[in-house]
Specification:
The protein is mainly alpha-helical. The protein has helices at residues 9-32, 38-67, 98-106, 118-144, 152-184, 196-241; strands spanning 69-71, 88-90.
Length: 242
């Protein structure tokens, strides 16, 4: 890929739309958890941003993959065929709407996102259908668990939240690995690593968020789990001594 980054109105609109979910997550955090501690607020903000991105941005990619297509020109003999339709090429590259333009822009950094790459589509199906709702569920549990009065129900909400957060964070990291490891093993032929903006903004920053923050979530979950088991053992020891 030899294209270099250039700024025009559609590019600016695409970037602003992709970044708009950050202030939206901040606003929702202030609305639902105005008095929570900083860690709970960050967890809520992150999973809100996570859910919005998965459902609306990545969901639009799936929409384009299943609905946008063009007839194959000439001989199309490369198998397997997406949706078992050898006479069609599917993907955002063949769409004309705003979501197609969004992914056409990102495809300048990673060409796989212009079409219906089978591995990418398979990962995105899990991300949109399971990852997005899981992030919403975590936000719900954070709100329900944000009470000052200790109770069994409060502990249940927190336990469910950390379990769901660990599962989702692990899936995010695994999904990132399966997205880029095939490219690294084949020389990154589909990635625009030559251009500073495409490499560091589109590829590293936008994708790196789903590695760095899930790792932080797992780190926090480790301390929560350790504290829970230590406290359980302390209480058990105190009961035996009575």
């Amino acid at each position: 890929m030899t294209a270099t980054f250039s700024v025009d109105l559609p590019t600016i609109i695409c970037l602003l739309f992709a970044l708009s979910f950050m202030p939206a997550a901040y606003f929702l955090t202030n609305h639902y958890l105005p008095k929570a501690n900083s860690r709970e607020r960050f967890l809520f903000a992150w999973h809100t941003y996570d859910a919005l991105t998965h459902i609306f941005i990545e969901g639009s990619f799936l929409w384009e993959c299943f609905t946008s297509w063009a007839p194959v020109a000439g001989i199309h003999s490369t198998e397997p065929f997406f949706l078992n339709r050898p006479e069609r090429n599917y993907g955002p590259a063949y769409g004309t709407g705003p979501s197609a333009r969004l992914w056409q822009e990102y495809a300048k950094a990673d060409r796989r996102w212009a079409g219906a790459d089978i591995t990418v589509v398979s990962l995105e199906l899990l991300t949109v259908v399971l990852g997005g709702p899981a992030a919403i569920y975590i936000c719900y549990l954070l709100v329900k668990g944000n009470h000052k009065t200790p109770s069994v129900a409060l502990g249940t909400y927190k336990a469910k939240m950390w379990f769901a957060a660990v599962v989702l964070a692990t899936a995010e990291i695994y999904g990132g690995w399966m997205t880029f490891a095939p490219e690294w093993l084949t020389g990154s032929t589909q990635l625009a690593t030559h251009d500073f903006v495409y490499k560091w903004l589109y590829l590293v920053f936008f994708n790196g968020l789903w590695v760095v923050i899930p790792l932080w979530v797992l780190w926090q979950a480790w301390y929560e789990t350790m504290d829970a088991f230590v406290n359980t053992q302390v209480l058990a020891s105190q009961k035996r001594q009575r």
